[in-house]
UniProtKB/TrEMBL annotation:
It comes from the Bacteria. The keyword Oxidoreductase applies. Residues 11-186 form the Pyruvate/ketoisovalerate oxidoreductase catalytic domain. This is Indolepyruvate oxidoreductase subunit beta. Keywords: Oxidoreductase, Pyruvate. InterPro entries: IorB_Oxidoreductase, Pyrv/ketoisovalerate_OxRed_cat, Pyrv_flavodox_OxRed_cen.
Length: 189
């Protein structure tokens, strides 16, 4: 049976790195894995998405509307924007973090304060405070690895050797910090 994970965020949040680490871990565990990513205007704070499909045999890297088992959002407005990709019985993991898009920054639009409530009213939702947990660890940039930990826990993928994946794919001086961040993410869900 194929599982579908959609990761979304805003450029600069590390969504793509988290997707690559997850893909490598799933491959290490022996799954057939397909990944597809869209950068959009990611370098300018635009939307970023990665689709990961894994199982015994995966034919396509594309998740259709209503096909994601889990939607993982690194920024809460992105969760709302991509909600139509979630299966009716799917789960959302949303980082309680907001990045104002250009219409909000220019004053043409407001950032709704009720996004989390709106998402929770529609689907099973886990709220993760990855941003503050990353700051507590001493580096806001590990927010993505904290989010990765939450995915690992929700998908019951703890048996994969994530320490090895991090050791082989993160700069040496950041390995310990990322291992701590991964554990924090696993413990948050």
């Amino acid at each position: 049976m194929t599982k579908n994970i959609l990761l979304v965020g805003v450029g600069g949040q590390g969504t793509i790195l988290a997707s690559k680490l997850l893909t490598l871990g799933l491959m290490e565990a022996g799954y057939d894995v397909k990944m597809n990513e869209i950068h959009g205007m990611s370098q300018r704070g635009g939307s970023v998405s990665s689709q990961i499909r894994y199982g015994d045999k995966v034919e396509s890297p594309v998740i259709e509307l209503g096909g994601a088992d889990i939607l993982v959002s690194f920024e809460k407005m992105e969760a709302l924007r991509w909600l139509s990709y979630l299966k009716p019985d799917g789960r959302v993991v949303v980082n309680n973090y907001e990045i104002n898009p250009m219409p909000v920054l220019s004053g043409k639009s407001d950032y709704s304060k009720d996004i989390i409530k709106e998402i929770e009213s529609k689907v099973s939702t886990a709220i993760v405070d990855a941003a503050n947990k990353a700051i507590e660890l001493g580096n806001a940039k590990v927010m993505n690895v904290i989010m990765l930990g939450s995915i690992i826990k929700l998908m019951n993928l703890e048996e994969i050797n994530w320490d090895k994946i991090l050791e082989e794919n993160v700069k040496a001086q950041f390995i310990d910090l990322n291992m701590k961040a991964l554990k924090v993410g696993i413990d948050l869900v």
